[in-house]
Amino acid sequence: MADLVSISGLSKFYGGVRALSDVNLTLNRGEVVALVGDNGAGKSTLVKLLAGTERADGGDIRIEGQLVTMESSRSAVARGIHTVYQDLSLCDNLDAVRNLFLGQEEISGIWSGRRLRRAEMEAETQRILASLAVKLRSLNTPVGRLSGGQRQGIAICRALVTNPKMVLLDEPTAALGVSQRAEVLALVRRLKDQNCGVLVISHDLRDVQEVADRVVVLRLGEKVAEFNSGEYSSQDLVAAITGAHETPAGGFA
Ligand SMILES: Nc1ncnc2c1ncn2[C@@H]1O[C@H](COP(=O)(O)OP(=O)(O)O)[C@@H](O)[C@H]1O
Ligand SMILES: [Mg+2]
Class of 5-242 per CATH? Predict the structure, then answer.
């Protein structure tokens, strides 16, 4: 069977800058792949190409074997790819229910003519929150008043409204304390258990080692390493990220 997502030879230039060069990557259902790399490695560029907010200059993206072009974020969502950005894109003054369905009423099929059916949206919100074990005291609290972990949870639940095949998470634990970080890593595992493919970008190598089935390392726009869970050390990861294992020409071994 074809991979859920298969990227081959993906390239992107910004003027003279080679942001991404000939990158290959696959992701399957029920798999967590971490994407790591130093600043400027091309992580965000890869996310933007998959999320449909930027166009590739070369290469292919296939979903379940079918060649796709991502014209917009809407087309990515329609093809089953949902992205949770680092800023979470939540509306702080609205509650969890409104945030989950914001702009997705039609995609989720819960739109009925002019009025949104609040009761249906609440029931669906409760179901999705429960499926990822996200706990809120009330569905009516403006999300601006919730904790960082709860907000990240709601942003991930928002992805599930459209029943995605793949969820892209950009630095999901970056702004969180220790216990909230653990909560979010548990969410990632539950997405995996729901048979989603998860591509997670993280600076935190502990996160990566805890949740990823595979780790893909980018450096200066190129894929320089790929490790399977349990087959690498922290040092291997750091060396690949920084390029420290390479001896510069004329340098010391
Ligand atoms: N909109 C842009 N215009 C010009 N250069 C960009 C733009 N976006 C990214 N780049 C460049 O592309 C490279 C990869 O950036 P990025 O994908 O943001 O890396 P990362 O997310 O891994 O830090 C960097 O050299 C960056 O400066
Ligand atoms: Mg980035």
Answer: alpha beta
